[in-house]
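ugh finaly. both done.
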Amino acid sequence: MLIVCSHCHATNRIPEGRKASEGQCGKCKQTIWQGKPVDLSESQFAKYTSKNDMPVVVDFWASWCGPCKAMAPAYAQVAEQMKDQALFAKVNTENAQQLGSQLNIRSIPTLAVFRNGKEVDRIAGALPANQLQQWIQQALSKMP
């Protein structure tokens, strides 16, 4: 299984059956995935969403957005709870305007689930932790 390190963004091979949260990066020697959302730049987004064999949940947000800030703790909580089911990332749309336009992000916060570089599901608006986890589990169940 291929997993992109949440620290240095190097691609690592993890043996089947082993959890990404247990793997150590061959490049930076840190734990590959710690269950905390990773801040992605525009240039890191494509690699992170297409080179991971695990699904990637992305929160598109902005610093001026009140609902984005209100949902951030719930998003971090769900990332920790689901750390062996999906990877979690955040993209600041103020810094990644071209990406936001390319992906047709019209309102924030917008959450999207990616698998092998393709968007699987999307929802707009802030959600409490329990609804967020339920939506992610539903999106993951749609995947082959």
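ok and the 2nd:
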Amino acid sequence: MAKNEVKIPKATLKRLPHYYRFVSTLHNSGVDRVSSKELSEGLNIDSATIRRDFSYFGELGKKGYGYNINYLLKFFRTTLEQDDMTKVAIVGVGNLGTALVNYNFTVNDRMQIVAAFDQSQEIIGRTIGNITVQSMEDFENKLEEQGIQVVILTVPQQVAQKVSERITSAGITGILNFTPQRINVPEKVQVHHIDLGIELQSLIFFMKNQ
């Protein structure tokens, strides 16, 4: 069944990048094929869940053979649109923003932070890696000029909503929100919330109750 003929669960879509990264690692290691059991062990995801996720996209493998790595790699690149470079901007260059710019998605050559913005005069003009922090006054012009599609939001919580409104007004339809604030955006905008406090609390809970 083609992916445009069925509604793919959000949980499945969120797992696709994990599958892609693991398959890329296998490919780089010279592996030709992999079973759902091996995927399960490598990703710590139940094999039944993996088979169900893959079933939404048709026949990706063969029973008794497993999955062809080259085929899976091509499939995930196409599905995740990884044949094109996605340009990302950081808004808010404090400690976390600085760390993310330094990291700069080096594990994936199809996503790259190309710009960083802040409103503090103490931060504007600072060079982090190969990126110079720019003023928010130039935000809209630089987005268009550099072809930026996604923004990572790492501003203080109290200004997150206001800044997100400016981001979406500039035409950005994808935000990775690292602030605790749950921002309200237009329906066409995709927001993924990364609350480090909640993630850590969840980790500790599962550690104590496994």
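summary for the 2nd one i guess: The mean pLDDT is 85.
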